[in-house]
Amino acid sequence: MESLPLYVTSIVLWLTKELFQISVPSAKERTFIAVKPDGVQRRLVGQVIHRFERRGFKLVGLKLLQVSKNLLSQHYCQLTKKPFYPDLVEYMTSGPVVAMVWEGPNIVQTCRMMVGHTNPAEAHAGTIRADFSLHVSRNVVHASDSLEGAQREIMLWFDGHDLLKWDCIDQSVTSEL
């Protein structure tokens, strides 16, 4: 079956959104994912990446870094007054972190579902945290919780030149799912 030209698909999506007042996920939506120190130290980075790739998402930014306390205070600015914040900073600076930006349709919501509940005991089977986390304070990954949060976190962790624009050979297939 031949697919519709891009301009026709764009018009259909726009009309659907306008006429029915529903949101249509953008293929260019991005999210921030970080494999935390326990995930890196336990050599889980490849398995985490594999799950997002298997879902059809495109990796557009990746770096391994030792996170500074300054970056953490900006990233977790809403948590700085919480009693667990000093332990969180100690944990997040205890080893390297793999920071990633992923792209795909409805990616923020989908990645949150794939990652699972913050507390691994409450995470559904098959999620990253249910499968790999050992404790609520050592839960392997961070995933942005909203599109706005993703944009803020991506700007904190990455410079514009760190993110690549590239075409995946199966992009036309995954963007239609």
Polypeptide structure, described:
One of its GO terms (biological process) is CTP biosynthetic process. The chain is of the alpha+beta class and 177 residues long. It has one domain (25-174): 2-Layer Sandwich (Alpha-Beta Plaits), CATH 3.30.70. 42% of the residues lie in helices and 14% in strands. The protein has a four-stranded antiparallel sheet with strand order 2-3-1-4. The two termini are 15 Å apart. The relative contact order is 0.20.
Describe the SSE topology:
Elements: H1 6-20, E1 30-35, H2 37-41, H3 45-54, E2 58-65, H4 69-75, H5 85-92, E3 97-103, H6 107-115, H7 128-132, E4 141-143, H8 147-157, H9 171-174
Antiparallel strand pairs: 1-3, 1-4, 2-3
